[in-house]
Amino acid sequence: MKTTHDTAAHGGDVRLTGLGKTYGSFTAVHPLDLTVPEGSFFALLGASGCGKTTTLRMIAGLEEPTAGTVRLGDQDVTALPPYKRPVNTVFQSYALFPHLDIFENVAFGLRRRGIRSVKKQVGEMLELVQLGEQAHKKPHQLSGGQQQRVAVARALINHPKVLLLDEPLGALDLKLRRQMQLELKRIQTEVGITFVHVTHDQEEAMTMADTVAVMNGGRVEQLGPPSELYENPRTTFVANFLGTSNFIEADVDTRSGDDIVLKAGGGKLVLPSARNSGPTAAGGKVLLGVRPEKISLVPADDAGRIPEGRNRITGRISDSSYLGVSTQFVVDSPVCTAFEVYVQNIDRDHRLAPGAEVVLHWDPAHTFGLDAAQDADAGVETVGEEAV
Amino acid sequence: MATVTQSPPPAPAPAQAPRAKPPRKRGRRTPYLLLLPGLLWLFVFFALPVIYQASTSVQTGSLEDGYEVTWHFATYWDALSAYWPQFVRSVLYAASATVLCLVLGYPLAYLIAFRAGRWRNLIMILVIAPFFASFLIRTLAWKTILADSGPVVEILNALHVLDVTSWLGWTAGDRVLATPLAVVCGLTYNFLPFMVLPLYTSLERIDPRLHEAANDLYARPSTTFRRVTLPLSMPGVVSGTLLTFIPATGDYINADLLGSTDTRMIGNVIQTQFLRILDYPTAAALSFILMAAILFAVTVYIRKSGTEDLV
Amino acid sequence: MTFVNWLKRRLVVIAGLLTLGYLLLPVVVVAVFSFNKPKGRFNYEWQEFSTDAWRDPCGVSGLCGSLSLSLQIALWATLGATVLGTMIAFALVRYRFRARGAVNSLVFLPMAMPEVVMAASLLTLFLNMGVRLGFWTILIAHVMFCLSFVVVAVKARVMSMDPRLEQAAQDLYAGPAQTFLRVTLPIAAPGIAAGALLAFALSFDDFIITNFTSGSTVTFPMFVWGSAQRGTPVQINVVGTAMFVVAVLLVLVSMTVGNRRKRQKA
Questions:
Q1: Which one, of C208, C233, C207, lies nearest residue C220 by Cα?
Q2: Is B237 inside any structural domain?
Q3: How far apart are CA A93 and CA A151, in angstroms?
Q4: Is the pLDDT reported for residue B218 higher than 90?
């Protein structure tokens, strides 16, 4: 697979400039500027209907953009049909040709480009995805995971400049999905091709991608490495779509050095100003956010032992569920109902039971601030959405 | 099928191509090229003859002197008043045959779809295979089966069934052959597969878990059938009914082979007028009335049953 | 009570099997009477067992000629209807174009019209154009009425086809022609085959339309019809039985071959 490095080396980046798509009066993708660096693993993350798949299909050439251009390195491919683009796709539910066996499926692209001796290459590719034995089976005789690997092999064998993956793991069960995430990451590292991956599964995006673009309503909400998106989300949508966030509505009180002091209920909370994307002037309304696993929980009796300089609020445990690795508490507090807290099960304190008065405290460095003008529940998965 | 390739991809635009023009056009002409030969065929050999037929029906003249369009609509009236019994008979026979097909065909389709197990394919073959043995020969076999001294007639006679059917006017005396019953029996036989196959297709699509769910929700087998199976199989019922009723109305073979002069259907009249008497205007008018009646009935039926996407 | 319950549970099965018996009874009669040695001209009453007809199936003048004519017409009509019908089906499923509704009705109407009406109309046209009735008029008519059935069969298959398969082919460097030949056509093949089979059966067995458009040409159904008026030779039953047996055998063989292939691959 070493040869692929040569192709990729000249390929350069995927550059989308003002790329947009409208269907009649409906805008699927607002004009979008995006650069995917060469050799990176890039994920487009969002709920169904957010425009991520349309964006991917415009890169593949399967959808005609209504505005903007698609460039691969120096080459403008906007006007090229899919079969002339050095780009290959792993389709949702794989789209393996049912009438061809695995070998012919994988050889399809090579044969169409007039390559005669495909046997060696196909063999090597099937070894890479560990399907050497299955070469002469038909797709329907393979398991979901195997079909998925055939789809990857069928695309990769063409040494594309960019590999596009459209919800490639969506049809697999949880365990297999985890396994395939690592597998895909391994293959990407091995071949060094740029991967653009579309998914609605935030865990999948975070596990695999170097860079994630969170899309919502046809726009990119935030773009960055997974840790950046998780630790410092800049919209409530991102904060809720990636993991869980607790929000406290607060007013800006004063600045002190690099920090902003906020008033919420009766107490004061500290927020590093570098982590605030909301208003900074005194009196401005800020949604103060903190992730459930950053919070420590102590019975009210032990409040005295909490170190200085930590944000703290009081409340009462309304619910707790034991999850093995951790225990998940729901705490009602005057500043926020249903505060979620995850506590590692290291030393379990039996006083932490529903009804107990508690103090929650966390390092201010883990706090993030958002503009309170937005919907605090944006991006929260509801049961209805999950069914889609 | 070479027309599919008629949309050559335009040469790739140079990198600095002006963005004003749309990226690429997929062959706009392709669908028309695909449609053209087939539709032309249908137009010339189906639509045009029907239009021609319409004009023939309002022509007058004779075979020797030729015909002329005189807008002689009286032909319609004359044809109707002369042959209305055959029209009524056709509709009655076809409707009876359709109902019989539904009653007989539903259990068979249900059996194949849900109860046949590993026999399913064999039964399917047995339903379809008679298609390949000429239907005329099979219809003639009914002459043997219903023969006057045959076992069927003897059994029916012994059970006094024929007394009842004679009284109803379905049979005549000790005979079944050359009576309405024989014609309807033949029609039912001939079009039964056209009922069974669509019924089977729509029944087969029903998830068996729906039956389990209905049973789980306190529905007795009969209720399950009425509330779940039957409504879900309606598309099959509708298309089966159409596929049976339409050809049965225009059929004249069963009436000819198994019936008598008293069971002549409208198809027999049209055939005789066209091929023997050579009265083209009357024959054309009769075909037109039949066609209009059927199209009207089909449209109303499809609207009523709410399955317009059927066609 | 137990017997009533037993009957109740198996009511559907019993009714279904009775219907199946009704469907098969004439075939059985045809087969049995192919071994008859009738006294008169008509083969409606059982006389004595004989294999004469089976040993000399072409013994009746005109029978085998009409049979081969019917086969020829059916083959050509199948070919024509399948090609034209497949093209229409693809256009209907895969493209958007104007007058779609009109096209749909033009395809649907021949199926919704009694054969006798179509036959009569076509005869009127042929007579007025002064065409000589015979092989070609029969063929034209058969292609016409088989076409719609092919369209329906192919359309169903193409509609259930995942459009992503063709996109995948395009993504893998297959141009429009290659995509069609390598992916679309092979996947649509079962639908096309079903349509062709249906067209063959319809054409081969057609009597009404042929009766109007054949002139003095005699196809096999026409031959049977004629003999029903003049006297039915036993050889007719031989042909009917043979066709039934061949059809069943062909299906059984193709099914076992298919099953075995599946098992080998698994």
A1: C207
A2: yes
A3: 9
A4: no
Contact predicate A53/A78, CB 8 Å: no
Write out the residue range of the structural domain in which residue B179 sits.
Answer: 92-267
Number of domains observed in the structure of chain B = 1
Is C29:B141 a contact under the CB 8 Å cutoff?
Answer: yes
Nearest residue to B32 (alpha-carbon basis) of B6, B67, B52, B59: B6
10 Å CB burial of residue C181 (0-12, 13-18, 19+) is middle
pLDDT digits (tens, 9 = 90+) for C124-137: 889 888 899 999 99
Whole-complex ipTM: 0.87
Span B51-62, mean pLDDT? 83
> What is the C-alpha separation between B2 and A372, in angstroms, rounded?
62
CA–CA separation, C89 and C75 (whole Å): 21
CA C261 to centroid of chain Cα atoms: 27
3-state SS of C78-90 is HHHHHHHHHHHHH
Q: What is the pLDDT of residue A3?
A: 38
Strand A162-166 relative to strand A194-199: parallel, antiparallel, unpaired?
Answer: parallel
Q: How many whole angstroms separate alpha carbon C228 and alpha carbon B141? A: 11
- In this prediction, residues B294-300 reach a mean pLDDT of 86
B231: domain CATH number is 1.10.3720.10
Residue B28 falls within a domain, yes or no? Answer: no
B155 and A CB contact within 8 Å: no
Task: Give the H or E element holding residue B216.
Answer: helix B208-216
Q: Chain A residues with CB inside 8 Å of C183's CB? A: 97
Q: What are residue C140's phi and psi, to 5 degrees?
A: -55, -45
- C123 in helix, strand or coil? helix
Q: Is A140 within 8 Å of chain C by CB?
A: no
- According to the model, what pLDDT value does residue B27 have? 59
Asked if C217 and C134 count as a contact pair (C-beta separation under 8 A), the reply is yes
Strand order in the sheet with A285-290: A267-272, A259-264, A246-256, A285-290, A368-371
Q: If contacts are CB pairs under 8 Å, which of residues 153-212 in chain C contact chain B?
A: 175-177, 180, 185, 201, 204-205, 207-208, 211-212
Tell me the CATH class for C59-232. Answer: mainly alpha
Burial class (CB in 10 A: 0-12, 13-18, 19+), B151: exposed
Low-confidence stretches of chain A (pLDDT < 50) are 1-10, 383-388
For residue A145, give both structure tokens.
């995971």
**φ and ψ of A22, to 5 deg:** -125, 145
Residues of A whose CB is below 8 A from C265: 136-138, 141
Give the predicted TM-score (pTM) of the model. Answer: 0.79
Token pair belonging to C150 = 């092919």
Burial class (CB in 10 A: 0-12, 13-18, 19+), A176: middle
Check: CB of residue B45 under 8 Å from CB of residue C140: yes
Condensed to tens digits (0 to 9), the pLDDT of residues B265-290 reads 999 999 898 888 888 888 889 998 99
DSSP letter for B157, please: H
Of the partner residues B49, B105, B136, the one whose CB lies closest to the CB of residue C124: B49
Q: A245 CB near a chain C CB, below 8 Å?
A: no
Whose structure tokens read 């059966």? C201
Is position B70 within any domain? Answer: no
Q: What is the mean pLDDT of chain B?
A: 83
In the predicted model, is pLDDT for residue C101 greater than 60?
Answer: yes
3-state SS class at B134? coil
Q: B touches which chains (3+ CB pairs under 8 A)?
A: A, C
Please tell me whether residue B242 adopts helix, strand or coil conformation.
helix
Distance between start and end Cα atoms, chain C: 49
Domains along the sequence of chain A with CATH:
4-236 (3.40.50.300), 244-375 (2.40.50.100)
Structure confidence at residue A29 (pLDDT): 93
How far off is chain A from B7, nearest CA to CA, in Å?
12
Q: Are B3 and B33 in contact (CB under 8 A)?
A: yes
pLDDT at B297 over 90: no
